[in-house]
Design brief:
Layout lengths: L13 E8 L9 E10 L2 E10 L6 E2 L1 H7 L6 H14 L10 H21 L1
Antiparallel strand pairs: 1-2, 2-3, 3-4
Helix pairs in contact: 1-2, 2-3
Length: 120
């Protein structure tokens, strides 16, 4: 029996954001994105971008992480990172959403999650 889980808080300048879209509140997400990065000297460091619904399993998109690394966080950068994420995504199709719609969600939700993270 699991009785407790301890997860340490992010240290220092670590930022995070999370966004998801589902058909109805409480449903499984069509696409979800979790982002985290540190801010060191005004630049993003050690970014992680994880997705559900962007592939046939939960994935990190390395191209998006690389585009964020060592850059100053701003809306122009977030647009570029979101475009890289959408381009690299290989979303499934099902009766809830086609691949093109999920790819659009990857772009929009990535931009929103990064913006939320930047606000701290």
């Amino acid at each position: 029996m699991l009785t407790a889980i301890h997860i340490p808080l992010a240290a220092g300048s670590r930022r995070w954001g999370f966004e998801e879209t589902s058909q109805r509140q409480g449903d499984f997400a069509l696409v979800a994105v979790a982002v985290t990065f540190a801010v060191d000297g005004g630049r993003c460091a050690n970014p992680r971008l994880a997705y559900a619904g962007a592939a046939d399993r939960a994935v990190r998109i390395a191209a998006a992480e690389a585009a964020l690394e060592c850059q100053s966080p701003d809306q122009t950068l977030f647009e570029q990172v979101a475009a890289k994420a959408a381009e690299a995504a290989d979303p499934p199709e099902d009766l809830h959403a086609d691949a093109a719609y999920r790819r659009d969600l990857v772009r929009a939700l990535t931009r929103r999650a990064l913006s939320a993270a930047a606000r701290g």
